[in-house]
Amino acid sequence: MAQPAKPASPKRPEANGKSSSMRIDPDLVRELAELLTENALTEIEVADGERRIKVSRLSGTEARPAQPIAAPPAAAPEAAPSVEEISGETIKSPMVGTAFLSPEPTADPFVAVGDTVKAGDTLLIVEAMKVMNPITAPAGGVVKKVLVADAQPVEFDQPLVIIG
Fold it and tell me: Which of 65, 93, 59, 66 is nearest to 79 (CA)?
């Protein structure tokens, strides 16, 4: 863990005849930069009395994750027309998580297109925070379309299955 910062200058520099500008301790800045690298941080800030030092790492790679975040909303409108084309009840995800279509990787899926389900039947599982949450059919019907793939991340209120 980081050691307390060393005082770089007296609190009242004008008392000893020096200017009131802040003196920077290069060893402290170097130590903070090493902490950034060792702990994969993008920013670190320390305060010692009236002195505050903030070291941050900005790179061109940080702008790249923002692009995939913008891409899924563009994909969502594409999925919406397919939901509207098929009549029936759309079952949506009640949470953010990962959708699993079967109880375990080698097992058959809970449901497939064309299967008849009754109210309370498990359609798939959404795993969130290591908890497996079964998504059940609110009413009976026939599975018209499964809108997610196995092990696909899902968002809150994302359409999962259409039952008609």
Answer: 93
